[in-house]
Specification:
single chain; 39% helix; TIM Barrel; eight-stranded parallel beta barrel; 11 helices
Length: 323
């Protein structure tokens, strides 16, 4: 495994993080084993959120992924850097929610109890809240840092102008500023390159790239001209799938398949390595559905794409919005 300093923080993290979306795990124990296996394999960066749940075998029941991670942290807290997120778990009705100060204060305590820890290393605003004043949100996040409940703060799914505004406000108010951004980035969604990458370079922010496999389109399971397998994620999203493979994205998927075969690596390894080849990207998040997939992702580090391979893969610029 390779490690990197995350932005201007003192957090030394693995270049591949484990994302706890837990879509393929069938039980809490299987999910816990996935986390333990990741740590045993050298991954020391675990990405979580208060919104993430593992569906239980019982109907209409689920368990928070923070609780599953908490069981692992009980004996291995010193081995890992953890994130959690706030702001996407509720709406903006009378019950609060979003990135209001009240909701953040309630959610941080709930997350800490589930995780069984006193401090979250990196606490992220899950989405931009267009209703709550950003000043209120930033003052609350600053209070969490000063109280010791959080070490660093950041944001997810923000546009570059929103990050820039938050940085400016934090400087003006003399509060804790963002240290990291987390956004969708892959061969099929290169939108960050337009404005976010110049911003993070200038401000020395860490970047966590989620969905480096473009919601599985770069997993090697999907081929232009062939329908998605019955029961797969994209089988339920046929219109989007057909749209993807009609345009440049379909060309890129097949180009990635060819380059991966020539290089002797899997498509997921190629796709993640391409993401990490960008100096602005600190970490790629693997949302592996199984230990086998996780092990495959680990093969994305320790080698470099050639200039010729990068040129071939970068031939067409795509900015798909796919989740």
């Amino acid at each position: 495994m390779q490690y990197i300093r995350l932005g201007h923080t003192d957090l030394n993290v693995s270049r591949i993080a484990l994302g706890l979306g837990f879509r393929g795990q069938s039980s809490e124990r299987e999910a816990q084993r996935t986390v333990e296996h990741a740590i045993d394999s050298g991954i020391n960066f675990i990405d979580c959120a208060n919104k993430y749940h593992l569906r239980s075998s019982a109907p209409d029941e689920s368990v928070r992924c923070e609780e599953i991670l908490g069981r692992v942290l009980a004996t291995r807290r010193d081995e890992v850097v953890i994130t959690s997120k706030v702001g996407a778990e509720a709406g903006h009705g009378l019950d609060g929610g979003g990135c209001t100060g009240n909701n953040i204060m309630q959610q941080i305590d709930h997350s800490l109890r589930c995780l069984g820890t006193d401090t979250i290393d990196l606490y992220l605003l899950h989405v931009f809240d267009p209703i709550t004043p950003l000043e209120e949100t930033l003052r609350t996040m600053d209070a969490l840092v000063k109280s010791g409940k959080v070490r660093y703060i950041g944001c997810c799914n923000y546009q570059a102008w929103q990050v820039c505004r938050a940085l400016w406000l934090a400087d003006r108010m003399d509060t804790t500023s963002f240290a990291c951004v987390q956004n969708n980035y892959s061969l099929l969604n290169r939108g960050l390159e337009r404005e976010m990458f110049p911003l993070v370079r200038d401000q020395r922010l860490g970047v966590m790239a989620f969905s480096p496999l473009a919601v599985g389109l770069l997993s090697g399971l999907y081929t232009a001209g062939n329908p998605p397998v019955d029961g797969s994620l994209w089988y339920e999203r046929r219109d989007e799938y057909d749209f993807v493979f009609r345009g440049d994205a379909g060309f890129i998927v097949e180009t990635a398949r060819t380059v991966a075969k020539q290089r002797g690596v899997t498509m997921p390894q190629l796709a993640i390595n391409w993401v990490l080849a960008h100096d602005e990207v600190s970490v790629a998040i693997s949302g592996s559905d199984s230990i086998k997939q996780l092990d495959d992702s680990l093969g994305a580090v320790g080698w470099e794409l050639s200039e010729e391979e990068l040129s071939t893969l970068n031939e067409r610029f795509v900015e798909l919005t796919i989740w």
